[in-house]
Amino acid sequence: MASKLIQTEGHEAENPIGVCLREAFGLIESQLRPPFPLTIPSPPEYVNLNRAILYGILCEPHLAKVHVKHLHGKITDGYGFFTNMLTKVVNDLYPKLVDTAKVQLIWVTSEMVSVSAIGIDGLLVALLRQIVSGDFTEGNLWLCSELVGLFLAKWDCLLEEEPIVLTSALYTFLRLLADHYRLSSNSKLDVLKQLEIKFCIRMFREQFHLCFKIGRDLVRLLQELVHIPEFRPIWKDLLFNPGEFKTSDYRDISQLYVSRTSSRYFLLRITPEMETQLRFLLTHVNLGSQKRYQAWFGRKFLSFPERETLVVDIVRFICCSHHPPNEIIQSAVIPRWAVIGWLLKSCGRNYVQANAKLALFYDWLFFDERLDNVMNIEPAILLIVHSIPKYIDVTHTLLEFLFLIMENYDVGRKDIINHGVLSAFCMLVRKGVLCSLDILVNCDAISPFLKQRLVELFSGMKATVSKELQPVLKGCSLDLLKASSLEAQNTVAGNTHEQ
User: Fold this and answer.
1) Contact present, 253 and 259 (Cβ < 8 Å)
2) Residues near 461 by beta carbon (within 8 Å), at least 6 away in sequence
3) Helix 164-180 / helix 138-153 crossing angle, nearest 10 deg
4) Fewer CB under 10 Å: which end of the chain, C or N?
5) How does pLDDT run across 451-468, given as a tens digit for each residue?
6) Is 9 exposed, middle or buried (0-12, 13-18, 19+ CB in 10 A)?
């Protein structure tokens, strides 16, 4: 029996999940029509029945309600196995599903939300991950529209049973809105944008205690939306009117700054296929042999100009969600910093490159050694250091950007940011990522101006850093900072005199 579930090319092998669903349906198809057998199925029969019903729902839209009624009558595990199979279909088959099967998939997901099926949160997250950032194809926009509609329609049910999954939806739709608003001339997006805004604003106004759980990256996403009229009051209240959110837990935006975002949120903007390819690259491909893999990845996922914004999501994923073990770090496998360097070079638009650099440095700005992971900040410093001297322009660009955001990201809370950056440097030395800060302040290849800024950061902030960090600063050859400072000043003075 040919599969009615997926589209396959002649040279492609059949997917095991698709095969087992189709075979289960073919084996007991006669039992899937009323009147249904009254016997209680054995465990193997129960598994087969679930698979057959799932195939029937996806491939026989005209009988979907009959199949669901059959499922309701036979269920004994809270729909756990059925929902798990649905999640596997989404993760492994979604891009290849025929259009009618995709429609049925959303329909049956809604049914599972209604009955509070076990595992429904994982299924909804799997569907959210299939929405691709920067993709304006009809199918991708349809999925986005269907899911935001589902979250709005099932708001009360989800709030009662799986409230945390609403934060995953918020993260997703905030990120997608930034892309969708860049195509302001596309009238097809207008309805979708209004649905996304409606959901996000409702979350902020009615369930801010859930929004707060996202952590600091909530601010990073929101700053991309301040030009949207509906979000201006949200931003204003975050900064000046915390009482408007009607939760005693929120008093100032700095609370979000110092709250680390869980790695599960960064996975939301990376499809399972992207994740597989990136983890393969960062686990099995040696440095020097990566070009063809990078070229393939670029053709597959970054080939259209609008897809560039995916780079921001990928950088955040690599920094915060992919932490290789020591055996990989010490091997010849391409390091994370090298892949991020390639991604930054692939950005053609200035705003995308700026957002990608912010994604790279974001945890630096609010780093707290008690809460944050040194692996989140490691790629940035290694990219800075390893770009000396061959790609010194990269080193300069990254250091200039770091100082720029330290000065301008939040002028009113600059002390928090300065402390975070210095804490990040100290932790990098303490953990041995950097052997010493001398590698930067005494490097002849780095411009005198930037060396001077580094000297001011490392020496001028000694008094503000915690007692626990002061020994690290002292151990980072701070006795050489004055000499470095004098050298930098003399060089700057000499250049000025020559001009």
Assistant:
1) no
2) 418, 419, 422
3) 140
4) C
5) 999 999 988 555 545 554
6) exposed
Alpha carbon distance 25, 19 (integer Å): 10
Per-residue model confidence as pLDDT tens digits over 116-140: 999 999 999 999 999 999 999 999 9
**φ/ψ of residue 477, rounded to 5:** 55, 45
- Residue 39 token pair: 């016997």
Dihedral sign for Cα 249, 250, 254, 258, please.
positive
Residue with token string 């983890």:
279
Q: Are 458 and 403 in contact (CB under 8 A)?
A: no
pLDDT digits (tens, 9 = 90+) for 291-329: 999 999 999 999 888 899 999 999 999 999 999 999 999
pLDDT number for residue 130:
98
pLDDT in tens, 393-409: 999 999 999 999 999 99
What gap in Å lies between CA 65 and CA 77, rounded to an integer? 20
Question: How many other C-beta atoms can be found within 10 angstroms of the C-beta atom of residue 138?
Answer: 8
DSSP label at residue 262: P
The answer, yes or no, to whether residue 489 has pLDDT greater than 50, is no
